[in-house]
Specification:
By secondary structure, the chain is of the alpha+beta class. The protein has a domain of 53 residues. The protein is 25% helix and 18% strand. The termini are far apart.
Amino acid sequence: MKATNMKSLFISILVFLILNACNTIDTGRKEVILNGVWDLAITGSISETPKVFDRKVPVPGLVDMAEPVFQDSDSTLYASSTYWYKKTFTVDHSTSVLY
């Protein structure tokens, strides 16, 4: 009897997963993947806007993966600095759907 209950439970879960996978809603939105190499700049505070983005860093990633490497020690790298990321990308407005 336990084997029958386990079999029924397995079939129920399998049917649920199949039906749930088929239940996708098309919102008309396109996904833009922003992973890649970004420009990076460092300033002393958030009120300073960088004029030059002189480093490259992989995203996702940490600022200590930037090239050229920061010369600060690890203890001060994050202490009182603001890091600015910049990435340029194009949005295709021809297929945009606004609700």
